Amino acid sequence: MAMRDLPLARVYQFIEPGPVVLLTTAERGHLNVMTMSWHMMVEFEPPLIACIVGEGDYSFAALRRTGECVIAIPAAELASTVVGIGNCSGRDVDKFARFGLTARPARLVTAPLIAECFVNLECRGIDMRLVRRYDMFVLEVIKGWIDPARRNARTLHHRGFGRFAVDGETISFRSRMR
Questions:
Q1: Global pTM?
Q2: Which residues, in sequence order, are bridge partners of residue 48?
Q3: Contact 64, 49 (CB under 8 A)
Q4: I need a labelling partner for 91 at 20 to 30 A (CA). Which of 20, 44, 99, 111 fits?
């Protein structure tokens, strides 16, 4: 099989970390939501998630100052909403109003849950040492929520330049891990 050069700027399209998520913040009563696809699990228990929120993103300042957010996982049916959220800034628009999202109070953080998402994870920043250099926040999930009616919802996966894949069939194998 012949191989061709892969431009390094396209590597991320193949090493995509997981589902596209929505990240909410709240600061001084202002709620915001952004689309995020650059994140990864770094520990099982307690659950730790590393994520990239760029300094140019409107959510960056609120996340850095408060150290709190919610990571909400939308189902594939919300694809156009997810893309729309990612293509505008909270500096200019109330995204909850524009996209018809329902903010629900979280239990342990000030950032809101999103009722339309089938999973919501309340998070606190526990390691900010990589923020200055890489815009990387390490978050601990301190409370999780799931809609049992949508437990097996299909998720979106960013493939770059406006392209997304949707989860497919789930296969299971016996695991020896606990």
A1: 0.92
A2: 43, 140
A3: no
A4: 20
